[in-house]
Write a structure and sequence with these properties.
The chain is mostly helical. The chain is 62% helix and 0% strand.
Length: 495
């Protein structure tokens, strides 16, 4: 039977340090929490570690630790995990820097997470990197902002990706620029979407480009439209094409033109059609010629008509032939006269007849005479009646005779009486007899005598009686002997 059983707290408090040392394990086990609470600092120091380790959680909590003298460093190191967990925040606060520096990783993870919040940043600053790494996620999440900020480079570097994931948004916001910069690749992988959203713009700009390059699509998508403008050129340059493709349309819309200028050719090609279509006209107009030329023929149709009409002259002039071929009818209609004017000749010649037919009359009227002259035969055949009517007399005169020779009867009939006088001798000579027969009486009446003089014998014979009857007396009088003989011969043949 233990001698301490039945002893009053006064008697316990009167025991000498030698008597405390002489007590056996059974005696300490027999002490009540009330008796334990009666021990003073000297008596507590006298407890042998072999006896200290058998104290129950209740007994440990009863220890009155005063002025950092309650437990010796050797005693602190001897505490079991259960005893460490039982310590109250007030008891932990009596531990000195040497005590905390000496506790094992097993002991550190046994401390109640809530109790850690009562420790000063000065005390937690003495924890070794290994001790921090041993902390549970729950303990990490309970650290105060001051404690987090006090972590030096080696301590912060010791945190695992799982521990980084455990940080609260308030803790994330408290991280210093240095801590953000020193995040390892593994730690970066531990950042959650919620944590990323909590970063301020200054913190975002401090993420190492190499670390940002390791962000998953989910992490990258977590950046808000307020954070995106904070990304630096180096950070954007570090993004992979997979990450570029993962950007939301809202994130892309939040980028300024300087940021977009960092997109390399493969970045441009990585953009989805949806991403491209959501770029603002200002953003599109800011793209360099190289960036525009990087777009594939599959991406070009994604550009909206507003984006097309806001392309700069350099951008339009820089379009590749494959890109020009990929333009839709709606996009063709969106080009302004100024834009059409800067089309490279070889690119303009790549427009299909369907694309030419898609042009508005205003666009057709704005084409230069050189562009009209450069129309291919296939393109010329694509002109609609309304487009032909919109041509100026200068434009009409520049139609290649060989192209005019391929006009359908409907196209020939589209020329107005104002345009007909602009036809050159070469053009009239190129007309087939079928086309001559397709001329309306109004068109024939609009021809001057010089133009009529280009009608060959077979052209004269192609004229219908109605056409002949509507020629003016001046026109008839201007016909050559050969032309008249052709008509007479035709009359004999008909009778």
């Amino acid at each position: 039977m233990s001698i301490v059983i039945g002893m009053s707290t006064t008697q316990i408090a009167a025991l000498t340090t030698q008597q405390i040392k002489d007590l056996g394990t059974a005696d300490f086990k027999a002490m009540t929490p009330t008796q334990i609470a009666a021990l003073n600092s000297d008596q507590i120091d006298a407890i042998e570690t072999r006896d200290l380790v058998i104290l129950s959680s209740g007994q440990i909590q009863a220890l009155q630790l005063y002025n950092n003298q309650g437990l010796l460093n050797t005693q602190v190191q001897a505490l079991t995990p259960l005893q460490m967990k039982a310590l109250t925040s007030e008891q932990l606060a009596t531990f000195g820097t040497d005590d905390f520096a000496a506790i094992s990783t097993t002991q550190i993870k046994s401390i109640d997470a809530q109790d850690l919040t009562y420790l000063s940043a000065t005390l937690t600053a003495v924890f070794s990197p290994e001790q921090f790494q041993a902390m549970t996620n729950q303990q990490i999440a309970q650290l105060t902002n001051d404690q987090i900020i006090s972590l030096d480079t080696s301590q912060f570097a010791a945190l695992t990706s799982a521990q980084i994931s455990a940080l609260t948004t308030n803790q994330i916001k408290a991280l210093t620029d240095t801590q953000i910069e020193n995040l390892s690749t593994d730690q970066v992988k531990g950042l959650t979407a919620t944590q990323i959203k909590a970063l301020d713009t200054d913190q975002v700009s401090k993420i190492e480009p190499g670390d940002l390059a390791k962000f998953s699509a989910t992490q990258l998508a977590a950046f808000t439209s307020t954070q995106i403008p904070a990304l630096t050129s180096d950070q954007i340059n570090a993004l992979s094409t997979t990450q570029i493709r993962a950007l939301t349309t809202a994130q892309l819309a939040a980028m300024d033109t300087d940021q977009l200028s960092n997109f390399a050719s493969d970045d441009m090609q990585a953009l989805t059609n949806t991403q491209l279509s959501k770029l603002s006209t200002t953003q599109i107009a800011s793209l360099t010629t190289d960036q525009m030329q990087a777009l594939t023929s599959a991406q070009i149709p994604a550009l909206t008509t507003s984006q097309i009409s806001n392309l700069t002259s350099d951008q339009v002039a820089g379009l590749t032939t494959s890109q020009v071929k990929a333009l839709t009818a709606a996009q063709i209609k969106a080009f302004t006269p100024t834009q059409l004017d800067v089309f490279e000749t070889e690119d303009f010649e790549q427009l299909t007849s369907a694309q030419i037919a898609a042009m508005t009359t205003a666009q057709i009227a704005s084409l230069s005479t050189d562009q009209i002259a450069d129309l291919t035969t296939t393109q010329a055949k694509g002109l609609t009646a309304l487009q032909i009517k919109a041509l100026s007399t200068d434009q009409v005169a520049e139609i290649e005779p060989a192209d005019l020779a391929q006009f359908s009867a409907a196209q020939i009939a589209a020329f107005t009486s104002t345009q007909i006088p602009a036809l050159t001798s070469d053009q009239i000579n190129a007309l087939s007899t079928t086309q001559i027969r397709a001329l309306t009486t109004a068109q024939l009446a609009a021809m001057d005598t010089d133009q009529l003089s280009n009608f060959a014998s077979d052209d004269m014979q192609a004229l219908t009686n109605t056409q002949l009857s509507k020629l003016s007396t001046t026109q008839i009088a201007s016909l050559t002997t050969d032309q008249m003989q052709a008509l007479i011969l035709l009359r004999f043949q008909r009778h």
